[in-house]
Amino acid sequence: MTRKIIAIVGSYRKEGIVERAVEAILEAAAERGAETETVRLIDRSIEFCTNCRTCTREEGPQRGICVHRDGMSDILDRVEAADGIVLASPVNFFGVTAVTQRFIERLLCYAYWPWGKPMPALRVKDRGLEAVLVTSSAMPAALGRVFTRSLSSLKRAAQTLGAKTAGTLFVGSAALRERRELPQAILDRARKLGHELARQRTEPEPLN
Fold it and tell me: Computed over its alpha carbons, how large is the radius of gyration of the chain?
């Protein structure tokens, strides 16, 4: 069966470092027979989460229904139909971009949290999804991994979606020139991650 891989990209710059890294991952996955798709958040209509918690009140494994009627539902339908996901955002002010944060906050629909309950609980802990996380920073990668929050935010988003992180890609020193070519080591890592996402696996046992 053909594996489906979807990339959720929160970069503001088309053909920027993050997008090119994601393209390398998806190209490698396609080489191994995967069907790939890219969703650019900047091109989608995604409203702010107002924390009304309407989406969290109904119990069950299905995601809650949001009061907003925008492009988020279509994106999540595509994620749920996939076998693997690439979550990507450059670092902005030590964290993910605003459009990525908006997407992450709307993932509250995957939690069950009725009034009176002190803490939310994930509706499904393991959907059989595998995630690759991609980010870039003006800092060298070794420093960026320590002093920025982008990877940790993307990892929490993956967990909320019921995905396990299969690998990460951090492109450092991204601001040295206006258009920096991706180093061969980064391209090699991207290809390895793409091949990993495309690898066939047995059906996981549900945890819930």
Answer: 17
Which domain covers residue 99, as residue numbers?
4-198
Query: b vs e for 154-175, b when ≥16 Cβ sit within 10 Å of the residue's Cβ?
Result: bbebbbbbbbeebbbbbbbbbe
Structure tokens at 11: 């970069």
Residue 181 lies in a domain: yes
Which has the closest alpha carbon to 134: 107, 111, 154, 118?
Answer: 154
Q: Can you give the CATH number for the domain in which 138 is found?
A: 3.40.50.360
Angle at 121 between CA 116 and CA 122, to 5 degrees: 145
Q: What is the pLDDT of residues 65-98, one digit of tens each?
A: 999 999 999 999 999 999 999 999 999 999 999 9
| Span 113-149, pLDDT tens digits | 999 999 999 999 999 999 999 999 999 999 999 999 9
Whether the predicted model's global pTM rises above the 0.90 cut: yes
Residue 153's contacts (CB-CB under 8 Å, 6 or more residues apart) are 89, 95, 96, 100, 101, 104
